[in-house]
Design goal:
The protein is an alpha/beta fold and 188 residues long. Helix 5 links the parallel strand 4 and strand 5. The protein binds flavin mononucleotide. This is NAD(P)H-dependent FMN reductase.
Length: 188
């Protein structure tokens, strides 16, 4: 394996649940073995809206934040993208993080996980198109986590561990597919 799996938390709101889900999904994947995982929280990464003067496809980056992001993605064996659904789409933070780079995504084994009140099926479909355009190799199993009735009065998840446990079969299936994609790429 060429590097850690990057687990990207896509929501950046001040009060959100992506971090809670991310923490428990990472734990589930780590317990399943097979990989080291590095969590990348887009809120902490804090990329500005794409501010590179040249097309990312040229790879001629000017800014340190872009070079760091490029190194992190290029050095990873695979990525997991955890995205919320906003108004039937994915958040601008996720699109921005993807748009910053280009060649780094090519042939990258990837697993997409959406969540939302209704599970985020629509944003999942939309983001699949974008990830396909940049050439990622996507695990086929769809993971759409329904969060209806899961919130407490503080707008956080009452029991994120229980939600991830409820979804663990499909999450592990998708994770194993991702491992197969990584192994397949390593053999080439
Ligand atoms: C601007 C906005 C739009 C939303 N639109 C949808 C939607 O279209 N479908 C859905 O299932 N949930 C929708 N929701 C509910 C979110 O998916 C839910 O609040 C989720 O917790 C958001 O992830 P986050 O808390 O990590 O930001 C929306 C939430 C926000 C803030």
């Amino acid at each position: 394996m060429s590097g850690d799996v990057l687990f990207i938390v896509g929501s950046v709101r001040p009060v959100r649940v992506g971090d809670q889900l991310g923490e428990h999904i990472v734990k589930l994947f780590e317990d399943a073995g097979d990989a080291r995982i590095t969590m990348v929280d887009l809120r902490e990464l804090a990329l500005p809206f794409l501010d590179e003067p040249k097309m990312p496809a040229l790879g001629k980056y000017e800014h340190e934040h872009t070079k760091r992001w490029s190194d992190q993605v290029a050095g990873s064996s695979a990525v997991v993208i955890l995205t919320p659904e906003y108004n039937w789409g994915y958040p601008a933070s996720v699109k921005n993080a993807v748009d910053y780079l280009y060649k780094e995504w090519k042939d990258k084994p990837a697993l997409l996980i959406s969540y939302g009140g209704g599970g985020g099926k629509r944003c999942y479909e939309q983001l699949l198109q974008v990830l396909g355009r940049v050439g990622m190799q996507l695990a086929e199993t769809r993971v759409n986590i329904v969060l209806r009735d899961a919130y407490g009065d503080d707008d956080r998840l009452k029991d994120a561990a229980a939600i991830v446990d409820r979804e663990s079969d499909v999450l592990i299936k998708a994770w194993q597919e991702l491992q197969a994609l990584i192994a397949n790429k390593d053999e080439l």
